[in-house]
Amino acid sequence: MKRVFLRQLLFLLGLFGGVSTSLLGQLSEGGYPHISSTQLRSHTPIEYVELAPPSDDSVRAYIEKDLGTSPFRVMSLGITLYTSLTPENSGKLYRDSRGAIVWRLPLKVDGATSLQLYFSRFHLPEGGKLFFLSPDGKLQKGAYTAKNNTSLNALALSPIEGDKTILYYEGAVGEEDLPELELQQVTYGLWDQKDFKYTHPALGKYKRSEPWFWGDYSCSPNVVAFPEWDKQAHSLLLMIVRGNTVCSGALINNSRNDGTAYVLTASHCMNNSFRRRGDKAYIQESAKRTVFFFNFRSPLAERMVRGVEEQSLAGAEIIAYDESTDLCLLKIVGVDSDPTYSRSGGIPASFMPYYSGWNAEENPEGSFINLHHPTASVARYNRHDASSLKLTDFSASSGITWKGVHYHIPKWQIGTTAGGSSGSPLYDRKGRIIGALTGGASTCTAPNNDVFYALCRCFSLTKDKKKEERLAPWLAPDGGVTSQEGFSPYAPLAPTRLSHNFYSLLREQVEELDKKSFAEVVGVANTFPISTQSKLLGLLVVANLEPLESTLPKVVGWAIDSVGKKRILFSEAMTLPYYQYLSQNTTHSATRTLLGWIEFFIPLDKHNVQLAEGETLWIGFEQTDGGAIPFPLLRGKDNKLKTAMSYMKLKDSSQQWIKGDDQTLPVALRSRGNFWIDPIVWPVKETSSPRPNKNRCTPSAYILGGKMRVSIPEKCLSSCTVSLYSLNGKRLYTAHSESLVADFDLPQSVLQEGWVILYFTFGEKQHYSTVLSTNYGNVSDGN
Q: How far is CA 225 from CA 229, 295, 437, in A?
């Protein structure tokens, strides 16, 4: 670190007091600088450091090249500008009212739709914080701290919407070291985030271009429509490279099952589609400047809901790379240093990561599945119904020709690829990766002729290939294997999304409540039975946050034990930072905006909330200023197969929580449907063995041929809810019965569990649970 005292800085740089602003990055801590947004806005006009935008001719040439005939399936987002801005040569340095060192750098690139920043030097002192703020004082990103320091001494940020941002660094009180920061590259965004079109004034000749997935979503369906691929979907990543290229990739396992954060993608995602072929420095820099988005998928299959964007990491290094096959294996280095996450290579547990297995043997067996992010969209599913694949030759317009190293997909029976799909994994029938997408020509109307480089052609060491050009030294470091199963780093106690809707057969039956319906609602909450001791990590919510015109509510949670004792867990103000933004109607990643129905993640692990087995978790939102909840939430539709697990509090309800199907609620609000407010919990021990009570109602059940038959003794027949949970507490299925014998069709995702917990609720007081096998017709009768 360079030690510089404020007196010297004022003398050498002629700087004087300025305004605090904020800078934000991956795995940021949130918060705000020690200055109010009102103070920030009072310091106007803002004196920006302005970078010259690209010329009209260079933009036109760039787009003509981008919209050309390249066979690669990448998507470009903007033009990179080069600079060298540091605390020593740009912006203002001063001390704030606490005596702490502050660096403030307002930055502007006129006309950009977004700005993506890359720091070639990034190392913060302990206690220092870096923020990014909008001109009106709103937090865009941050705070970045010493936890973001990596061995690469670099940091790439996901793009910030608009053409202005203010970098604001504040040191710890008493700290005299300046941060090591050098802003080297800024990507000038060219895409309009609402209309999916180039908006530069020089490009009026280009027609409005809509994403290919608009309208007919069945062309390449959402991955959540195929729950049997849920594990592999958790390994799929959307990648933003250098702020201007979109690709796909996947977490991939190694034979040691040690959670190393390897990502399989394609070499042309790193070398600008072979325009920088063999340029090692450029390729390594591309890896450093890659942002990885986890779990970017719609929670609904039949409609487009913009997925979670808060779960991202930035920065990687090249592990194995070979342009003669298009191979690229990365390792994410911008991970969390918390030792709690060591089993997942530093990927936070709330991301629910999964490392896909792989098969590098000849002649893999199908059908063959491709998971990908076409046009920077939410995760999609393709299927090719064939028992085997052929290796083929493939030539690219860049003059590259590959001989016999690519699997050929002659036609997709479901789906197609598009720009953004490059690097996406191809799976065999056992769910193991056998290749990654290089390119092709498939479209919705002609889903034909895509090619994936084959793992079997870039796996083993040969005389003419180094270990850095092959997969075996990294995926099978101890030798002896050519295939490997997938790996869940926290199994059997894996982090789990608890939901009354997401895993339900009735998931697609939803209703979109409006603000008028919510005019008298001051609180909403869902309840969840906790089947095993767990830690609460966060909350996934589906809501329409546009526009927000009133005070945000608090996020609240409490637990009630079996005797009715209430335990307050947390209560915190809800915040709406400018989230990382990759919408279904835009082609670039920008600071998230609030348009339409979205799914977003609220981290709660900082509260260190522990949930006890047998408790009921209540979690939701509550307005404390007397106003209504300012945004509507998505809710499952009312139907006889569901029971209300949601509650509401009204302005005139005397602070009482009212069950969702209670007759005292207004008709517009009354429903047995449940809100999309889903906690992510992390079990810390397995569920205790059930001990049936012979004095209680003892139903029986069995699973056979994909169906579950439930028999209920006549003496205890009443309104009965039947629920299935995985052994680590994940809610898999819920149904309702009023018959002595009832049959239920079970989804494949339930049948693959092996063992499930069967949970009955009779009325509101009597409960019964047991363990049931899904593998054969085993009968459970409580013994």
A: 9, 15, 22
For the chain, the average pLDDT equals 80
List the domain boundaries for the chain.
6-203, 229-482, 496-683, 700-773
The DSSP letter of residue 49 is E
- Compute φ and ψ for 426, nearest 5 degrees: -110, 130
How many CA atoms are closer than 13 Å to the CA of 405, on its beta-carbon side? 20
CA torsion, ordered 23, 29, 32, 34, to nearest 10 deg: -100
The answer to whether 244 and 116 have CB atoms below 8 angstroms apart is yes
Amino acid at 620: G
CB within 8 Å of 540: residues ≥ 6 apart: 299, 308, 497, 499, 599, 600, 601, 676, 677, 678, 679, 680
Q: Give the burial string for 47-76 (b: 16+ CB within 10 Å, else e).
A: ebeebebbeeeebbebbeebeeebbbbbbb
pTM, full prediction:
0.72
**412, 416, 421, 425: CA torsion to nearest 10:** -20
List pLDDT tens digits, range 681-708.
999 876 554 444 444 566 777 776 677 7
Do residues 141 and 135 touch, judged by C-beta distance below 8 A?
no
Range in 78-92, 437-451, 498-512 the model is least confident about: 498-512
Q: Report residue 51 CA to chain centroid gap.
A: 32
Fold of 700-773: Immunoglobulin-like (2.60.40)
Alpha helices in 401-487 (DSSP H): 472-475
* Distance of alpha carbon 159 from alpha carbon 163, whole angstroms: 10
Element (H, E) at 61: helix 56-66
pLDDT in tens, 366-390: 999 999 998 778 899 999 999 999 9
Q: Are 434 and 427 in contact (CB under 8 A)?
A: yes
Rounded Cα gap, residues 118 and 685, in angstroms: 42
d(CA 414, CA 617): 40
Q: How far apart are CA 158 and CA 141, in angstroms?
A: 9
Amino acid at 417: T
Tell me the one-letter amino acid at 145: T
Pair 567, 610: CB distance under 8 Å: no
Separation of first and last alpha carbons in the chain: 68
Q: Are 645 and 661 in contact (CB under 8 A)?
A: no
Measured distance CA(164)–CA(108) in Å, rounded: 5
Rounded Cα distance between 651 and 519, Å, is 9
Q: Which of 77, 418, 374 is nearest to 245 (CA)?
A: 77
Asked if residue 143 lies in contact with residue 28, where contact means CB atoms within 8 angstroms, the answer is: yes
Q: Count of CB atoms within 10 A of residue 740's CB?
A: 12
| 745 CB-near residues (< 8 Å, 6+ apart) | 505, 706, 707
DSSP codes, 730-751: -EEEEEEE-SSEEEEEPPHHHH
Query: Is the CB of residue 422 less than 8 Å from the CB of residue 266?
Result: yes
**Domain 229-482 belongs to what topology?**
Thrombin, subunit H (2.40.10)
